[in-house]
Amino acid sequence: MWIEGNYRRNLMDMHIDDWNPEFLSRLDVDEYIEALKDAGIQAAMVKGRPHTGLAYYPTKVGRMHKGLKGFDFLGTMVQKCHENGIAVVAYFTQIFDNWAADNHPDWRIITSEGKGMREFHEKENMKTGRYGIVCPNNKEYREYVKACLTEMNELYDFDGMFLDMTFFPEVCYCPSCRKRYMEETGKELPRVIDWQDPDWRAYAYKRDEWMADYAKFATDCVKKIKPHVTIEHQFSSIAASWITANSELLLDAIDCASGDYYGGFLQQTFINKYYKNVSPNLPFVYHTSRCDPELKYHTTTKTEEEMLLHVITALVHNGAFLLVDAINPDGSIVPEVYHGIMKRVYDNTRRFEKYVSGDMYHDAAIWFATHAKYDPNETGIEVPQKSFQPAYYLQAPVAASSVLREYNVPFEVIGTKNIRQENAKVLILSHVAGIRDEEMDEIEAYLAKGGNLFISGPIGNQRLQKLLGIKITGQTGHDFTYMSPTKEGAELFEGFSHLVPLTIDGHQMEAEITDDTNLTVLATKTLPYTMTGRCEFAAIHSNPPGIYTDSPCAVLKEVGESKIIWTAAPIEMSRPYMSRKVFFRMIDFLRGEASFTSNAPKFVEVLGWRKEGTDYFAVINQQEESPVAPMYDITIEVKGKAGKKAYLLPEHTELKTEMTGEDMLKIYLPKLEIFHILCLE
Predict the structure, then answer these.
(1) Which segments cross the bilayer (predicted)?
(2) Is 591 exposed, middle or buried (0-12, 13-18, 19+ CB in 10 A)?
């Protein structure tokens, strides 16, 4: 497959309207090609149809962009890229299509308020009046998509296609959705969110199935004509809520995971790990913008340090980096981005491409459950009242990854498809509100191999509650609570006690023990003197502990050779250092012996992998703001490497090492600026 070894990529983002004759009037393909070549870019994503729906090539389907005056931009780019050894991934927008929405009103998504998306103005989540959005369940729209993709692939020879916007930006109540739901379930579309209702959960999953079905349809349209063309669907909404219907089911329609993100480096390392593990083929593709921090900051370019960190973080996870640049409305580019920053960055990182891939060392795996991307507290409300903001489903696992990075615990982020074969010592279920029975099958298979579980917050399946010997009975009315360690839990809860319990800035799940066989209570629930959120108080500025209970809020359960720890709230989300350390101790207890250890500070990630018999380590200074301050005197300790020497790559400069303790190799890294990659030989 052409994608193998193709790590340096680029997209010139050009969702440009054509009401002004100036728009695209200065488009210069030769200048763009020279910029790509000089920067060392291996693959260019080239716009075929942007969100405007106006084609960048002569088309018989819809309309061509007026500003091109008949010039075949797509075809010329395909030809010149291939002449210069640059692969081409053609870009096609779907669902977000202004031309289609304007010319075919009956194709439009209809919100729960009974409106199309362009009828809203200055609202959140695409309700700005700019985006014409149509429904993938509309059969006529699907025929339009088929005609577009057929035409593009009959006219041109692409290496791959990126089919963008494969998600619902809103819950759709159009006639096509209502009809399909009635045909498949015999029911009307629900309009009240209730995560305790099996019918509502079934509806949310049905939307996941619909989006996956549409993605497969679009993929098949291409593969029928050009079977060799690789397909990427926009997969970034995998991190968005249930509203998008973007789930792991989409993986059946793609050749590699690919999507754009605009958060920091912790977000990137989290999603890169997930992509690496679920992508059908590698490298996956991580996109982010040249603009700082996102595309709406059209004239602001990220620093070279930031770009280097983005590229190397993707690369060490065996991912390609795609720069999303923003073309000016007149079609001109910012050439110094390519001849300057990106040339230097790619010249640097290309030296390390031959060392990546291989099997990552990891002691813990965080399960990102894409069928449970909801806040269970957001229930009993009308659909228009829903929140688009990320909730526990994302915040908790990302917080867990932050603590693991802080304490140098090597970890992965996995999907459901990876659980059964996972060999990590600890599987982390960080506030997973719902677990489907087929997912529970995978968890039980993991435990049967001797794996260990950490669960925080909800216990999302009755089988898991039974296995743990705990029954969830609800959640506290108090939204500020405490965990008081027992004698048995004192070591894990070091720094806290009965009088000084661990603070939880939120609710706790309430539970009762149903099977105390091999079960140890580590902490019990403690509540403030008064109900939170009311005028009565014990201390005017705070809600100090006053009501001590015997209700379990942290337990240890032994199941055969496996151990399970459950906490009634996601303590990994705690801000205080001492609280985060409790989470680390629990993970450390469950994992036992570490694959490797390091003294690296909390924003420096140390990754290790083995490739073709050689051990490699990457040390990345993932500070979130420039300028990045250098770090000094970092050490890595690895067991079982007696007689090995450590070398900095690619120059092969030998590093100081010594044997410490029992068969432990200690590697000294005197200075770290942005990143280092080293090997053991």
Answers:
(1) none
(2) buried
Residue 348 shares a structural domain with residue 492: no
Q: What three-state secondary structure class fits 559?
A: strand
Domain shared by 480 and 544, yes or no: yes
**Domain boundary at 357, 382, 411, which?**
357
Distance CA(608)–CA(613), nearest Å, equals: 13
H helix runs in 186-249, sequence order? 198-223
Same domain, 346 and 368: no
Q: What are phi and psi of 46, to 5 degrees?
A: -115, 130
Is residue 128, in this structure, part of any structural domain at all? yes
Nearest to 417 by CA among 448, 452, 449, 443: 443
Q: What is the pLDDT of residues 609-627, one digit of tens each?
A: 999 999 999 999 999 999 9
Cis, peptide link before residue 544, omega less than 30° from 0:
no
Average pLDDT over residues 285-300: 94
Residue 273: per-residue pLDDT: 98
177/635 Cα distance (integer angstroms): 57
- Say if 3 falls within a structural domain: no
pLDDT single digits (tens) 144-196: 999 999 999 999 999 999 999 999 999 999 999 999 999 999 999 999 999 99
Regarding whether 256 and 147 lie in a shared domain, the answer is yes
- Give the integer Cα–Cα distance in Å for 580 and 582: 5
Please say whether the beta carbons of 203 and 195 come within 8 A: no
Distances (CA, A) of 642 to 98, 595, 617, 634: 63, 15, 17, 20
What count of other Cβ atoms lies within 10 Å of the Cβ of residue 202?
12
Counting every residue written for the chain, the total comes to 681
Q: What is the rounded CA–CA span in Å between residue 275 and residue 281?
A: 10
Q: pTM of the predicted model, to two decimals?
A: 0.97
Name residue 255's amino acid. D
Work out how many domains the chain is built from and give that number.
Answer: 3
CB-facing half-sphere around the CA of 304: CA atoms within 13 A: 15
pLDDT on residue 651: 97
Cβ pair 251, 275 in contact under 8 A: no
Q: Final residue of a domain: which of 591, 613, 644? A: 591
- For 310, the 3-state DSSP assignment is helix
Per the CB < 8 A criterion, the answer to whether 304 and 673 are in contact is no
Pair (586, 605) in one structural domain: no
